[in-house]
Write a structure and sequence with these properties.
By secondary structure, this protein is α+β, with helices and mostly antiparallel strands. The protein contains five helices and four strands, in the order ββααβαβαα. Strands 2-1-4-3 form a four-stranded mixed beta sheet. It is globular, with a radius of gyration of 12 Å. 30% of the residues are buried.
Length: 98
């Protein structure tokens, strides 16, 4: 299975997630910042930006350079969660394994 890249953005931790190791780094860093959530809880809480959600919900093919953007900041207000996106892209089991 090919890892689908995405962006992660919170006040404490941000960056492009290109691999499972990157996701583990994000989860570990969030935990170190007094965020007691594990990877499953982070994926349920993390919402997308409006642009990412419009592509996901509208079934559009994203532009080639578009990376889905998820996080816990105030601009992450859309309905789509990282959990939903991961399930749709067959990455859920992989991401919760961290």
């Amino acid at each position: 299975m090919k890892f689908k890249k995405f962006n992660w953005d919170t006040n404490e931790v941000w960056g492009q997630v290109n691999s499972l190791n990157d996701w583990k780094r994000i989860v570990d860093a969030q935990h170190a910042c007094d965020c007691e959530m594990n990877s499953t809880e982070l994926m349920k809480m993390a919402k997308s930006t409006v642009e990412t959600s419009a592509i996901f919900l509208g079934g559009e093919n994203p532009p080639e350079d578009h990376l889905p953007n998820f996080g816990l900041r105030r601009e992450h207000i859309a309905l789509t969660t990282l959990e939903e996106w991961a399930r749709k892209n067959d990455m859920y089991e992989l991401l919760i394994s961290v």
